[in-house]
Amino acid sequence: MRILGIIPARGGSKGIPGKNIKLLGGKPLLVYTIDSVKASELLTKCILSSDSEEIINSGKKFGVEAPFIRPAEFAKDATASIDVIKHALEFFAASNEHFDAVCLLQPTTPFRITGLIDDAIRKFEAGNFDSLLSVREVPHEFNPHWVFEEKNGRLQIATGEKNIISRRQELPKAFHRDGAVYLTKTEVILQENSLYGNRIGYIENSDADYVNLDTEADWVKAEKILKTKS
Question: For the whole prediction, is pTM greater than 0.70?
Answer without folding.
Answer: yes
